[in-house]
UniProtKB/TrEMBL annotation, chains A, B:
Record keywords, A-Z: Hydrolase
Organism listed in the record: Mucilaginibacter gilvus
PROSITE patterns named among the record's database cross-references: NUDIX
Gene3D superfamilies reported in the protein's UniProt record: Nucleoside Triphosphate Pyrophosphohydrolase (3.90.79.10), Winged helix-like DNA-binding domain superfamily/Winged helix DNA-binding domain (1.10.10.10)
One of the Pfam families matching this protein, by short name: WHD_NrtR
SUPFAM superfamilies for the chain: Nudix, Winged helix' DNA-binding domain
The Nudix hydrolase domain, residue ranges: 19-165
InterPro entries in alphabetical order: NUDIX_hydrolase-like_dom_sf, NUDIX_hydrolase_dom, WH-like_DNA-bd_sf, WH_DNA-bd_sf, WHD_NrtR
Protein name, per record: NUDIX hydrolase
Keyword hit for Oxidoreductase: no
Lineage summary: Bacteria, Pseudomonadati, Bacteroidota, Sphingobacteriia, Sphingobacteriales
Length: 253, 253
């Protein structure tokens, strides 16, 4: 539990360092061996969980701020973070406004203000991250998508909007470069898509479509071992992958 | 040319009404008879043009603010506006910071602050709009995409990002409901896509793909008149169209 004095100190510091009225919240999806998880923090002072978030320093670019926040929570630098939506309902952080209003004097109360939050999402291999709580949290950990705890503020909306965006983007942007090993089989890549979409896909359609995008290299060697026919290995064609990130997948117009 | 007194008055008023550090810029694309244009304003005090923009009132949802700004500039209420990106470079409005720093005292100078801008885009039939300048502009008018004037601040980046987003979104979201007449032919719809993409599309592929999305109703009547075979008429299936806006077009995974 944070004391009144601790909160006042954080608040006074925040007023010095950060831009008023703007926050950042990150939805960090973690994948490993066909499991999908999201990084969350258990609040010290409240009965609920939040997404990793923070504020923008007075002279800091917003994308740099998002990366700084994520690096502080996970130890990972230079994650591919993508802006996906801004959350700007006037009462979105009322829970915090009210809590802090009781604890910190108005004129030095950064947290009692209205905050418009820029949502970013990222995909990381969750074994790369070292979840690290912030000053306001007692726990930072991966939570299973099928077993999410109660969210604070509008963080459930931020989470579901990120997941919807990610699913929609599978149709027109490549995914997987920072999630798959360097060489992978088609069933392994299909598993990634199925995990994000939360549904089974037809094996032949998936393969046909994925190859049609022109972002994969078929490698000369196959994967040895196992009772079945050795499966082909693929890697991403980075040049085409980058182009597709920018211009959309070839199935576009 | 705005005087020092006028600027001071606007600035004092802005401090009362608006949230600090947050602005909104709108890229309004206008279509009519195969032409594509963008709504722009010629500044009174500077040698350049801007996109329609404004600020967020202290208790106003951000989407409501964007609609208010656009309604004020065009007379059109309830345009379908879509957030597409946040522009947050620390120096993005330095031009204005410097200009206003010379004209308005620091402690009452709203415009000398750093502003992070939320970009929205909209598509409207440009004959529906009555372009109306704001206090800082002498002209508000449609400019042809092939003949754009010099932009102020980072508004060229905002414009090109909106156009790139719109083009990418053609691959996975329906478009045209507020731009096409109630009943239209396939070549008319194709013309809209070609205008946005800035390139010709194959007639048969376009028709096959568009029908595959399941968002069109083929009407029993054809369009009469003209030397050629009377073309079929279509209308949008609103239920499927709305679902596709939310979930992506059927060509998705």
């Amino acid at each position: 539990m944070l004391t009144k004095e601790e909160l006042e100190e954080y608040s006074a510091e925040a007023i010095e360092i950060y831009l008023d009225h703007i926050s950042i919240d990150c939805v960090v999806f973690g994948f490993h061996e066909g499991q999908m998880k999201v990084l969350m923090l258990k609040s010290k002072n409240e009965d609920g969980w939040q997404l990793p978030g923070g504020f923008v320093q007075k002279r800091e670019p917003i994308d740099v701020a998002a990366n700084r926040i994520l690096a502080t929570r996970t130890g990972i630098d230079e994650v591919f973070l993508q802006q996906f939506h801004v959350f700007g309902a006037p009462d979105r952080n009322r829970q915090h406004n009210e809590m802090y209003a009781d604890m910190v004097a108005k004129e030095k109360n950064f947290f009692a203000h209205r905050f418009i939050s820029i949502g970013y999402y990222a995909l990381v291999d969750f074994f790369d991250a070292i979840p690290t709580p912030d000053e306001f949290s007692e726990i930072c950990t991966w939570r299973d998508l099928n077993d999410l705890p109660p969210f604070l503020l509008d963080h459930e909306l931020i989470f579901t909007t990120a997941l919807d965006t990610l699913r929609l983007q599978l149709s027109y942007q490549p995914i997987g470069y920072n999630l798959m090993p360097k060489e992978f089989t088609m069933p392994e890549l299909q598993k990634l898509y199925e995990t994000i979409l939360g549904k089974k896909l037809d094996r032949r359609n998936f393969q046909r479509r994925m190859l049609g995008f022109g972002i994969l290299n078929k490698l000369p060697q196959t994967r040895k071992g196992g009772a079945h026919k050795a499966p082909y290995l693929y890697s991403f064609d980075l040049e085409n992958y980058q182009a597709a990130l920018k211009e959309g997948l070839k199935s576009g117009w």
